[in-house]
Write a structure and sequence with these properties.
Layout (H helix, E strand, L loop, with lengths): L1 E4 L6 H10 L4 E5 L10 E4 L9 H4 L4 E4 L13 H10 L3 E5 L3 H4 L4 H16 L2 E7 L10 H7 L1 E5 L10 H13 L7 E4 L7 H12 L4 E5 L1 H8 L5 H12 L3 H4 L4 H6 L6 H7 L6
Parallel strand pairs: 1-2, 1-4, 2-3, 4-5, 5-6, 6-8, 7-9
Helix pairs in contact: 1-7, 3-5, 8-13, 9-10
Length: 279
């Protein structure tokens, strides 16, 4: 059996579906009740309390571990999840980490994630670590304004990074969970090309078949908007990355192709598949 945490999210949902379609027994874990594919068991659990995972981990052989940002806050102990998995007899863990562990190793969240990677490496469990860059699905932040105003408003309109389709992350995760040859790897996951916010707006417009205007926010305007949904320190950190990506963050990684034998999906493909969110 394979346990998927974060099973209702942009990565966990397609991963759960792919594993079920591959004929594997899957337990999907999320904080709230959810609809899952036929044949998949669903359990609610809060990863902030690893003991609550025990029913999900019982009998499991592999775990996909996705942590929300609050599980890296002061006092959180995400490493206990690794211990709980090991105690339950889990043999393999695939951890969704972040590219920033390597490209920007400072900052509380990235330091905590690197520490978790170290715990996993030292545990003796079979493992794979996925380090994606920016998610294509972050464009869903603009869904309301596109529907209501035909507008994308974002800072740094002409500064881009190679955003990765969450479906590609899910496909790589599935391969790492199912195939022994990827055990021990650290995989940096990006899209196939650098794309700017302005370019993303154009791709969304093409998918819709109708115009979408782009409005460039100032850094302060963007920070104020982001701070409504995240700590101000994290908003500031995110804006620094978005506005001044370093060379490593601009590079297109070969790892999606190395694992899947195909190129990563471009942003336009993601926009076409998710166009209903913008209508």
């Amino acid at each position: 059996m394979i346990v998927v945490t974060g099973a209702t999210g942009n990565v966990g949902r397609p991963l759960t579906k792919a594993l079920a379609e591959a004929g594997r027994q899957v337990t999907a874990v999320s904080r709230h009740a959810a609809t899952v594919p036929d044949g998949v068991r669903h359990l609610t659990a809060d990863l902030a309390e690893p003991a609550g995972l025990e029913p999900a981990l019982a009998g499991a052989k592999a775990l996909f571990l996705l942590l929300s940002g609050d599980l890296h806050a002061a006092g959180a102990r995400p490493a206990d999840i690794i211990g709980a998995a090991e105690a339950a007899g889990v043999r393999r863990v695939v951890l969704l980490s972040t590219q920033g562990v390597a490209t920007r190793p400072f900052g509380a969240t990235r330091i905590a994630m690197r520490a978790l990677e170290d715990v996993l490496r030292e545990s003796g469990l079979e493992r794979a670590v996925l380090r994606p860059g920016g998610f294509a699905s972050n464009a869903l932040w603009w869904a309301d304004s596109v529907r209501e105003q035909g507008l994308v408003a974002a800072p740094f309109g002409d500064v881009g990074v190679p955003v990765v389709d969450p479906a590609d992350i899910a496909d790589v995760a599935a391969a790492c969970l199912l195939e022994d040859r990827f055990t021990g790897g650290v995989y940096e996951l990006t899209g196939p090309e650098v794309i700017t916010p302005r370019g993303q707006a154009e791709a969304i417009a093409a998918a819709l078949g109708s115009p979408v205007r782009f409005h460039e926010l100032t850094r302060d305007e963007a920070k104020a908007a982001m701070a409504l949904g995240m700590p101000a320190e994290l908003a500031e950190d995110t804006l620094t990355i978005l506005g001044s990506p370093n060379q490593a963050e601009l590079c297109v990684s070969p790892d999606v192709r190395r694992v899947l034998g195909r190129d990563p999906r471009p942003f336009a493909d993601w926009a076409a598949r998710n166009v209903a969110a913008f209508r």
